[in-house]
Design goal:
There is one protein chain. The chain is an alpha+beta fold and 153 residues long. It has a single domain (2-137), classed as Sufe protein. Chain: A, CATH 3.90.1010. It has five helices and three strands, in the order αβββαααα. The chain has helices spanning 3-16, 64-77, 82-96, 102-112, 125-152; strands at 29-35, 40-49, 52-61. A three-stranded antiparallel β-sheet has the order 1-2-3, covered by helices on one side. Helix 3 runs antiparallel to helix 4 (102-112) and helix 3 runs antiparallel to helix 5. The longest helix is centred in the C-terminal third of the chain and has 28 residues, at 125-152. The radius of gyration is 15 Å and the shape is globular. The relative contact order is 0.20. Bound molecules: zinc ion. Zinc ion binds at residues 35, 38, 40, 62-63, 65-66, 130. Residues 6-130 form the NIF system FeS cluster assembly NifU N-terminal domain. This is SUF system NifU family Fe-S cluster assembly protein. One of its GO terms (molecular function) is iron ion binding.
Length: 153
């Protein structure tokens, strides 16, 4: 099987059967992010247990890349500390800036799990924002959640 078509299958699978979708309680922060160039939207809630991401719940609409990206991200961040999760987000950003460089993708394969399937998207600058929207929303929501929980203490 061609790598490219395997990646395509992973993205479509997350799009059709999104992991963790739905808005849940409790949560410390909720954000709404849009990618106006494509019409993608996501509403995301983050629930922290200390500085560990206990839950990320979301609803969204838009293209398959944007929605599959939230689902793949969900699998990567639950149970991680905010710092670790945002570190993974930085690596995903590196992948999205790789312009299809296979060596970059290879080096990130273990850490990014299914999210490595977005490697092909990095060749299409117009679609990179679709894939990054979920991670931008996570960064925003977890920063707000951390400041809410430190105010409460
Ligand atoms: Zn899109």
């Amino acid at each position: 099987m061609q790598l490219q078509s395997m990646y395509q299958d992973i993205i479509l699978d997350h799009y059709r059967n999104p992991h963790g979708r739905g808005l849940r309680d409790p949560f410390e922060a909720e954000v709404h992010h849009v990618n106006p160039t494509c019409g993608d939207e996501v509403t995301m809630r983050v629930h922290l247990d200390g500085d560990t991401i206990a839950d990320v719940s979301y609803e969204g609409q838009g293209c398959s890349i944007s929605q599959a990206s939230v689902s793949a991200m969900y699998d990567l961040v639950i149970g991680k500390s905010v710092t670790e999760a945002l570190g993974t987000g930085e690596h995903f950003m590196t992948l999205m800036q790789s312009k299809g460089d296979a060596a970059v993708a290879e080096g990130l394969e273990d850490e990014l799990e299914d999210a490595i399937a977005f490697a092909g998207v990095s060749k299409y600058p117009a679609r990179v924002k679709c894939a990054l929207m979920s991670w931008m929303a996570l960064k925003d929501a977890s920063a707000r959640a951390l400041s809410t929980s430190s105010e409460a203490n």
